[in-house]
């Protein structure tokens, strides 16, 4: 028994300290591969050991699943991987963590929806100690803002798996016919949308999300680019002049140049309208570019352009966020093995392969490598990389009750679309949002 306990303590020590020293000494290559003599990269074999991992339905998860046999063969570690729909995953994790379960050891998470809630309850294992001394992992290779998305209480709560930035899609042919340049500012976007708005001809000047809750993430870049934000210094700031300017711009574009029934338009409907050639401009997340560009049979497939989010008074400040991250259960009893899996899944080697499968990763080096951008349009690559440099690390209110906050803020846009006073609506929403923040702060 004493021998077993001693061995367990040695394993923990190796995973927390010796692993990192081993890595820097060359037990792994820069590509994240363990050496032949040390398949686990942990100073011991992992054969016979296992961890559990919960995944959501996403391209990132599919890439990991397809590469998993290689990881298991290399390390000897068995990964019991289970997939759920996004909502099922969130519910399953909440129930198990609340019950104090040590399973799953590793899990996918939507950081901007769940990190505050999970972190508040102490369910997230901080990963700082695992990356701090692991030079071969090259933590600095991740962009600053995507790490901001996965940070809670000043600690790294998860590692990024996939990223999104808000970008502008446009019709090259329509701009060329009208002799218009690609809009670089909000004023230019609004002016071009006005010129190209032709409902009788079946083309609207602009399309974007209009559903109250769904629109908030896309509204965010309008706020940032006009100098606003949802919160400033922990206080609600949705009624500042800067925020109102950004909201007003979004309302104007949708109300004057958008399609009818905009209240019912989510990202699927907006992307569908644009890909069918029914809108001149469309702004949304970069991750859905393949849908927005249409199929090879689409009449606009060769006429879709991709541009930076237009600049407002504060410049071009699109969101640049971690859409999916990989976290570790604070209650896991197999943290050393769990980190090995996270390290592998977010290594340069796997991010490269995952990105080649169409999943936009978070490592700058992969975006700078021609092999890492195979299959992405050239315009897309340059826009994503520039957005990573100037972007903002959140695309929604930074509170635990994100859905409720989105409803409150989205209602300002709805009131504007109904010709109600935007400033009055923003003042009301700011009071409600502040009340929500205050309630959370006293819990």
Automatic annotation (TrEMBL):
Alphabetical list of PROSITE patterns matching this protein: PROKAR_LIPOPROTEIN
UniProt xrefs under SUPFAM superfamilies: Periplasmic binding protein-like II
InterPro entries in the record: Bact_solute-bd_prot1, SBP
Pfam families for this protein: SBP_bac_1 (PF01547)
Name of the featured protein: Sugar ABC transporter substrate-binding protein
Organism: Paenibacillus ginsengarvi
Lineage, highest ranks first: Bacteria, Bacillati, Bacillota, Bacilli, Bacillales
